[in-house]
Structure formats: structure tokens, C-alpha cells
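Budget justification aside, the reviewers requested a transparent look at the raw inputs and outputs of the sequence design task funded under Objective 1. We therefore reproduce one unedited record. The lines immediately below are the C-alpha cells for a 336-residue chain.
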């Protein structure tokens, strides 16, 4: 397992990070979840990403229990705050000082740790002054409850404004967590160049495009039983944007490329995002330990430039590149 620096900081994280969105506390039984975490640790993964909203806080609890007994200093634990949690009252959401301060305490309790390495704003809060949000994050860092701060799915302009305030407050905003894959490249035009300038790295989620880049979804055929596209708990909504025959046909054409590199299609997808020098880590999830064992083999893979160009040619115009999609997909107001 290779490690990379996170942003302009001295913190190194495993370039493949284990995440438990849509799995722990919901899709996957706790015993299987623990087995996946053990597989991640055995494979050399040291970085683990979660959020308070995943399974309405249950995912943090499962991850904390799975990591119990591990040397804390040898791990990098990330979590997030923004989406509604708990009974979902009027202050159980957003990036107000109240919600941030209460949420970090809840996350630490569930994770069974005194601090997280990275505390992330899970979305931009249009209803809270950014100054209030960044001051609260700075106080969380000064209290020793988080070492660094980051954001998720913020636009380039929002990252720039948040980074400037963090710098004024003497804390380090070092990461951005966007969706990024061969099929979803909306961060390349604006977010990545801005982040490079500011010393911010990407920790990308869904590098396999919710499983589409494994090739298991085939044009003209129904989704496989038990796949994310059949999951009514949320997975189906996320994957449906890619389940068009034109997209699925192009994805099937990637199989020979993967074979030539002696990679599975999933490994190719993970390795592809790691070719971007602004990407510090790709987050992988798993419902079975063997998925972790296989996907970590993407670590350290170098894809030749001519093969990267070939991949672009295969996918053609089914790739989404419009930077406006980040803002379009962002909440305009806090969820009720």
C-alpha cells in the first residue's frame, strides 16, 4: 500500500481509503463489516472514512467497534458533518456552530476515539454564515478533537473562500472529497486547479461509479439481483444516472484495456483516479472482504499515458465534465 501527503500538510494517508457509506449499519451485517475492516487493515489500508449521517450514526459506531484494539496512532480516521442526524430536529442539520460542536462530540463517542484526523463539511451550508462555520471548525481543531479540516462537494469558489478563512484562523483546510471517476470528471476544470493552487488534495468517492465500472451492468439487461441498482435504501438513486445503454456499452469496451494491464475492471477504475496528482486517495467500500483484497491491488499501478488516452477515446462523450454539476447537485437549503 502506498501513502500520499494530504494537501499541503505533513499528514500521509493510504492512497486507497476504506469508506463505509451505504454499507455499515445498513446493507452489511456487523460481523461482515468487521471482516471488511480487518481485510482493509491486513492490506495496509490505514485511512478510514465515514460520516455521522451514514445509517443515521450507526456506521460510525460499527467502524469504531471494528477498529477497537488497533493502535490509534497508526490510523487516520475521517468523518463528516452536515446532513440531518438523530431525531432530525431543526438544529440537527447544517454547519451552524451548535450543530458542529454537538456533532463532533457524538462522532468521537461513537468512533471510540479522542480525536479524528480529518473533520469534513459534508456539504456547503447556504443558510449559515461561512465565518460561523469556519470559526467552529477552528475551535474543534484547537480543542484537539480534530487535527485537520476538509470539505466535500464544495465548488471551487466555496473552497477558496473557506480556505482563506481557515488560514486567517490559523487552521489547515487540506482536503476536498468529491465524486470522481472515469465517467464523472466534473472537478477537473475548476475544483482541481483551485485545489492545487491552495494546497488542497482530493479524497475521491465512488471511483468505480457505484459499481458501473466493474462491467457488471450490461446494456439491454436488468441489473443483477442484489446489486446497488436494486437497493431501495439509496444506492439505486445514485447509480441510475449511469445506467444508460450508451454508457454501459462504452464501459464494456474497457474490458480489453483492463485485461492488457492485467487488472480487473474495478482495479482499472481505482487506478485511473489515482493517476491524477491532486488525488491523495480513492475511497473504496465493500460488502465482502474479498472486494477489499482485490481492489487494493490498484495501489501503486501506473497507467501509461497512451493507455489513459485510449480510455478517453473509448468512453468518448458519455463522460460528464460540466463543472456546474457540483453546484447543481448541492443542497440550496438545509434538508428538513
Amino acid at each position: 500500500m502506498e501513502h500520499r501527503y494530504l494537501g499541503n500538510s505533513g499528514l500521509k494517508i493510504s492512497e486507497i481509503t476504506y469508506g463505509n457509506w451505504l454499507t455499515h449499519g445498513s446493507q452489511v451485517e456487523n460481523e461482515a463489516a468487521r471482516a471488511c475492516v480487518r481485510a482493509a487493515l491486513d492490506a495496509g489500508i490505514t485511512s478510514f472514512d465515514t460520516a455521522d449521517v451514514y445509517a443515521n450514526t450507526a456506521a460510525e459506531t460499527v467502524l469504531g467497534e471494528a477498529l477497537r484494539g488497533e493502535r490509534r496512532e497508526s490510523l487516520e480516521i475521517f468523518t463528516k458533518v452536515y446532513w440531518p442526524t438523530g431525531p432530525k430536529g431543526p438544529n440537527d442539520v447544517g454547519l451552524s456552530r451548535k450543530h458542529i460542536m454537538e456533532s463532533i462530540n457524538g462522532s468521537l463517542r461513537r468512533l471510540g476515539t479522542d480525536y479524528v484526523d480529518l473533520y469534513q463539511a459534508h456539504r456547503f451550508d447556504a443558510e449559515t454564515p461561512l465565518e460561523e462555520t469556519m470559526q467552529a471548525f477552528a475551535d474543534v481543531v484547537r480543542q484537539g478533537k480534530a487535527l485537520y479540516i476538509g470539505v466535500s462537494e464544495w465548488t471551487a469558489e466555496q473552497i477558496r473562500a473557506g480556505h482563506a478563512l481557515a488560514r486567517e484562523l490559523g487552521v489547515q483546510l487540506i482536503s476536498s472529497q468529491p465524486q470522481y471517476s472515469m465517467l464523472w470528471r466534473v472537478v477537473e476544470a475548476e475544483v482541481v486547479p483551485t485545489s492545487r493552487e491552495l494546497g488542497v488534495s482530493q479524497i475521491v468517492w465512488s471511483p468505480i461509479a457505484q459499481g458501473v465500472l466493474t462491467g457488471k451492468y450490461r446494456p439491454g439487461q436488468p441489473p443483477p439481483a442484489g446489486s446497488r441498482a436494486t437497493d431501495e435504501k439509496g444506492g439505486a438513486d445514485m447509480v441510475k444516472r449511469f445506467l444508460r445503454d450508451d454508457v454501459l456499452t462504452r464501459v464494456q469496451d474497457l474490458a480489453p484495456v483492463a485485461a492488457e494491464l492485467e487488472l480487473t475492471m474495478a482495479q482499472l477504475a481505482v487506478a485511473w483516479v489515482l493517476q491524477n496528482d491532486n488525488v491523495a486517495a480513492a475511497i473504496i467500500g465493500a460488502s465482502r472482504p474479498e472486494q477489499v483484497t482485490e481492489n487494493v491491488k490498484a495501489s501503486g499501478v501506473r497507467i501509461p499515458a497512451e493507455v489513459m488516452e485510449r480510455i478517453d477515446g473509448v468512453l468518448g462523450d458519455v463522460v460528464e465534465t460540466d463543472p456546474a454539476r457540483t453546484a447543481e447537485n448541492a443542497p440550496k437549503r438545509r434538508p428538513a
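The longest strand covers residues 76-81. The chain has a mean pLDDT of 93. Computational costs for records of this kind are itemized in the attached budget.
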